[in-house]
Amino acid sequence: MRLSGSIVQYSHTSAQWCLVLSVTSTLPDGFFCTSCMSLLKAGYRNFFASVLAGNQRGFAKAIQESGIPRDELYICGSVLSNRAGSYEAAYAATKRGCAQNLGAFAAGQIGYLDQIMLDYPGPNDDAV
Amino acid sequence: MRYEEEEKETCLVKSILCGLSFSYGCSPPFASYVSLIASNPHAHQAKKPPLQLDIASIVTCTLSHPLVYHLSFLYFFISHHYQVRGQWRAFEEMQAEGTVGTLSVSNFSPQQLDVVLKVQVDGWVMVADVGG
Q1: B71 belongs to a structural domain
Q2: What is the residue-level pLDDT of chain B in tens, covering all 132 positions?
Q3: Cβ atoms within 10 A of the Cβ of A19, count?
Q4: Is B73 within the bounds of a domain?
Q5: How far is A117 from A46, CA to CA, in rounded Å?
Q6: Which residues have C-beta within 8 Å of that of residue A92, sequence separation ≥ 6?
Q7: A17, A44, A81, A125: least surrounded by Cβ within 10 Å?
Q8: Residue of chain B nearest A110, judged by CA positions
Q9: Containing domain of residue B21, as a range?
Q10: Nearest beta carbon to residue A112 from set B81, B99, B105
Q11: Which residues of A touch B73 (CB under 8 A)?
């Protein structure tokens, strides 16, 4: 597991510092859930759970087990639909990606994302 | 007309015809053959040997022509434009459903960001890792 974190100032009412964490893991959900619990206890509240890392389900379970109120967290998911070759294919792939995110986060009763990210644009990037 | 000038003009006409034919769905070799006949119908009467169907020179000449270049650029722009629009449409629908607050992109080039900004309905686009 690779952890990389950075601290940014968050325009919160209490002017608190917010920890931003980007996590990449190929480990099982259970192991990642335990690790993520430790990070939550350490104060991390801003998470980017990428579909590429495959850690969304384990992360969601950790959120649920932590008991931290949802409004104290900022959660970002991601969609990978850059292989689509047409308008309709890109639309369909992105819709599936959105549904997969919500399905994975539902493992921790998370039904709302603060942000979702298109990881990559379509295939003809260089030609634009 | 000197042969070099004639050849230059032939190449120009050939490029235009090839580009137009290509844009209408003809394959480049076929389009080149058509344009070769159209641009030099009396080649057999010339003192110099008639123009040969040199694929490499035709392709080079065609691709370097401004008309073809712009047609190709337009084709790729439109095709990619539609893909980004497809991706973004799904994102905006998710936002409209109320399951996500903010939409963002990563690894998009400035040109691709322009596409998003043009088609987005409203709101903000958050950007991470602007691509080449």
Answers
A1: no
A2: 555 555 555 444 444 443 443 333 333 443 333 333 334 445 445 455 555 556 666 666 565 665 555 555 555 455 555 677 888 889 889 999 999 998 988 888 887 888 777 776 666 666 666 665
A3: 17
A4: no
A5: 14
A6: A84, B86, B90
A7: A17
A8: B99
A9: 3-64
A10: B99
A11: 127
Contact A88 B106 (CB under 8 A): no
Cβ separation A91–B76 shorter than 8 A: no
Instruction: Closest CB to B84: pick one of A89, A112, A121.
Output: A121
CATH class assigned to A2-122: alpha beta
Beta bridge partners of A24: A2
The answer to whether residues B8 and B54 belong to one domain is yes
Contacts of A116 in chain B (CB under 8 A): 91, 94, 100, 102-104
Which value does ipTM take for this structure? 0.76
Is residue B11 located within the same domain as residue B58? yes
What is the number of other CB atoms lying within 10 angstroms of the CB of residue A27? 15
Model confidence, pTM: 0.59
Q: Is B72 a member of any domain? A: no
Residues from chain A contacting residue B100 (CB–CB below 8 Å)? 77, 98, 112-116
> Cα–Cα distances in Å, from B40 out to B17, B18, B59, B61, B67?
13, 14, 18, 16, 21
